[in-house]
Amino acid sequence: MITRRDLVLAATASVAAGRSAIAQDNWPSKPVRLIIGFPAGGPTDFGGRLLQDPLGRLWGQPLVIENRAGASQVIASEAVARSAPDGYTLFLAASTHTSNAAVYTRLPYDTLNDFTPIVNLYASPTVLFVGRNSPLRSAQDLVAAAKREPGMTFGTSGNGVSGHFATEMFRAKVGIEVTVVAFRGAAPALQEVIAGRVAATFSTLSGAIGLVREGVLRPLAVGGPQRVEVLPEVPTLAELGMGIPDTSPWYGFMGPKGLPRPIVDRVSNDVLGLLRDPAIARRIVETGGLVLAEGPAAFDQRIRSEVAENAVVAREAGIRVE
Q: Which domain of life is it from (predicted)?
């Protein structure tokens, strides 16, 4: 028997659903916050600044960037995971999101289940670099030298970052023993390579392209699946028979768990439209990036695949962050 209480509950639920639908239809009706887990000026921040004004014009509301740096993006990730799924808090995540799941002993959120993938913007290919004064002219030279003298030093921008994963994958692929030296960021690692105190490094192209153009850094091979426009003469490791899984960092929009599908589709479609703008795409390419333009399904699949792959590499190489 249907009671009065049942009717009241049903009516209340109907009103709430109606209000939710209206709120989604009117989104955004106020400024949208975009949380970034790294300081201003880096490759993740670049993507946010690039799209900030165009999205603000499309939405008729400001896109407000909030840089919450620290703990390899964990602080920002937790803030997003705990935010309301109303579309007014978005996350411009870097692929550190997937490596953190593999290297941290515990995280204050569930990497796969506490977020909604929306759209993946672009990647910054991982490249194998040496300094301009290095006698190594190719990846083959580097492998030969490392086999003659085990323990060659490889610098990384930190423990458990993409360059560290690339180093461990490369070491295992070509059968060399290396000494990994972790620095506090890409800049000091690159400077040590330039100075010759560290033999080589895997680093993101977007963070190193200026040094390549200055002639102080020599790229030996691209770690990604294809050559890049700004380094047309540099082969991929795959071409050289040294291919490793692609560790190139990506940068994409996410939201908290439960983000309504209409908002997901709106953000994804608007961003994909902007990435088709030749001027915006050119800005990404000129900084050493590769436009990905992956929608929600493809982005979600990438995240899940990387979490699984990174877990294997981290376990075999003993990469952990307490």
A: Bacteria
Flag whether 183 is in a domain.
yes
Q: Are strands 178-182 and 152-156 parallel, antiparallel or unpaired?
A: parallel
Query: Is this structure's pTM higher than 0.70?
Result: yes
**Arithmetic mean of pLDDT over the chain:** 91
Where residue 39 falls among pLDDT bands split at 50, 70, 90? confident
What does the alpha-carbon distance between residue 95 and residue 309 come to, in Å, rounded to a whole number?
13
Tell me, yes or no, whether 120 and 130 share the same domain.
Answer: no
C-alpha span between 121 and 270 (Å, rounded): 12
* Residues written for the chain: 322
Pair 274, 310 in one domain: yes
Residue range 292-307: mean pLDDT, rounded: 97
Phi, psi of 164 (to 5 degrees): -70, -45
Number of domains into which the chain is organized: 2
- pLDDT tens-digit profile of 97-111? 999 999 998 999 999
Which of 42, 203, 236 lies closest to 130 in space, CA to CA? Answer: 203
Task: Give the β-pairing of 250-256 and 115-123.
Answer: antiparallel
Q: Considering the domain boundaries, does residue 210 fall inside one?
A: yes
Between residues 224 and 219, which one has the greater pLDDT? 219
Residue 5 confidence class, pLDDT cut points 50, 70, 90: low
Q: What is the pLDDT of residue 225?
A: 87
- Range(s) of the domain holding residue 204: 126-222
Place of tokens 């010759």: 196
Q: Which residue, 266, 224, 267, is CA-closest to 51? A: 267
Whether 271 is in a domain gets the answer: yes
- Same domain flag for 119 and 256: yes
Is 138 a member of any domain? yes
